[in-house]
Write a structure and sequence with these properties.
Blueprint: H1 8-21, E1 45-51, E2 73-79, E3 82-91, H2 92-97, H3 104-131, E4 134-141, H4 144-160, E5 169-172, H5 174-180, E6 187-188, E7 202-206, E8 209-213, E9 228-235, E10 240-252, E11 259-272, E12 278-285
Parallel strand pairs: 4-12, 5-8
Antiparallel strand pairs: 1-2, 3-11, 5-9, 6-7, 7-8, 9-12, 10-11
Helix pairs in contact: 1-3, 4-5
C-alpha cells in the first residue's frame, strides 16, 4: 500500500475498532465511558461532578415541617494523562520482494493496535487493583473449593456495598481460572446454550459474575511461594470511567530511506470514581497442573 492511497480517517477508525476489540479491562461492561467527551491532546481533563446522597426522613401527617436539604457536590477529575505512540515503516525493497507486500503495512497496523490495547489494558488493570474500595487480605488458593470461597467473599463485599447484581464481572488469571474449571458450580461459557455475544475474554459464570480470563491481571505482592500470584478483581462497570482516542494516524515517506511509514498517537486516561463497586484480593494460586 502506497502512501498516496492512505486515508487517515479510515485507518484511524480501523485501528480504534481493533484496539477496543482486543481489550479485557478496557471494554464496555467492565468500564464506562460516561465522561469521555472531546479529547484533543494529552493533559485534557474531564470534570466529574456528583451529589451527596439525600437523607431519608420520616414524614408525619399534619406535623412534619419539610425543610429541603441542600446537597453538597464533589468534583472528581479524569485526566487524560497517558500518551502512547507507534511508528514503523516498510522498505520499498521488502515490499517488492514479498508476496502481497502491499499488505505489510496493514498487518503491522493490526499488530500496533494490539500493542496499544495491551498497554492500555495493563494500565486500567493496575488502576482497578489500586483503587478498589473493598480489599480482602492476601491469601492462598490451593483447591477449587478455596477458589470458589474467594469468589464468594468478593461477592459478599459487593453485596454489602449495595452494588447492582446485574452486570457484575470477575477478572482472573489463567491459573485461577484453571481452579474454577475443576468446580462444578462454575458454568463454562461453552455451556451457555446461547449464541448471544459475550465479552472479550469471557470464559463462564459463577455466583452471578461474568468470569473473564486474561494475562493482564496485576501481579500480586504477597507471594508465598506457590505457582503464581495475581489480583482477582470483581466489580461493576460503574466503578471505573475511561476515555481514549487515537488522536492522529499519519502516513509519510521518511527522508532517510525508501519506504512507506505510518505513525499513530493514542491518548487515554481512567479513574476509579466508585471505589465501593470494586473488590479485590491478592491470591497465590497453584492450579495443580503440570508445570
Amino acid at each position: 500500500m502506497a502512501v498516496d492511497t492512505f486515508i487517515p480517517e479510515v485507518w484511524a477508525s480501523d485501528l480504534f475498532v481493533s484496539l477496543r476489540g482486543a481489550t479485557v479491562f478496557g471494554q464496555p461492561n467492565i468500564i464506562n465511558r460516561d465522561y469521555e467527551g472531546e479529547i484533543a491532546q494529552a493533559g485534557d481533563t474531564v470534570h466529574i461532578g456528583s451529589l451527596t446522597r439525600p437523607t431519608i426522613s420520616t414524614y408525619t401527617k399534619n406535623s412534619t415541617a419539610i425543610d429541603p436539604q441542600t446537597l453538597a457536590t464533589t468534583d472528581q477529575t479524569l485526566v487524560i494523562d497517558q500518551s502512547k505512540y507507534f511508528a514503523f515503516e516498510v522498505d520499498d525493497v521488502d515490499a517488492r520482494q514479498v508476496k502481497d507486500g502491499g499488505k505489510l503495512l496493514n498487518k503491522a497496523a493490526d499488530d500496533a493496535a494490539f500493542g496499544l490495547a495491551d498497554t492500555t489494558d495493563l494500565f486500567v488493570a493496575g488502576l482497578m487493583a489500586a483503587g478498589a474500595g473493598n480489599v480482602i487480605a492476601a491469601g492462598d488458593a490451593l483447591t477449587a473449593d478455596a477458589a470458589y470461597k474467594i469468589v464468594l467473599a468478593l461477592k459478599v463485599k459487593l453485596d454489602k456495598a449495595k452494588v447492582p447484581t446485574q452486570g457484575r464481572f470477575l477478572i482472573v488469571a489463567p491459573e485461577f481460572h484453571a481452579l474454577l474449571l475443576q468446580d462444578n458450580r462454575f458454568i463454562d461459557a461453552s455451556a451457555y446454550g446461547s449464541n448471544n455475544p459475550i465479552l472479550n475474554g469471557e470464559v463462564g459464570r459463577v455466583l452471578g459474575f461474568n468470569v473473564l480470563v486474561t494475562l493482564n491481571s496485576p501481579a500480586g505482592t504477597a507471594g508465598t511461594g506457590l505457582e503464581v500470584s495475581n489480583f482477582v478483581i470483581a466489580g461493576h462497570s460503574m466503578a471505573t470511567t475511561f476515555a481514549d482516542q487515537i488522536n492522529k494516524v499519519e502516513a509519510y515517506r521518511p527522508q532517510s530511506s525508501f519506504g512507506d511509514a505510518i505513525k499513530g498517537l493514542h491518548l487515554y486516561g481512567a479513574k476509579v470514581v466508585r471505589p465501593e463497586a470494586l473488590a479485590v484480593m491478592d491470591v497465590d494460586v497453584t492450579s495443580g497442573l503440570p508445570a
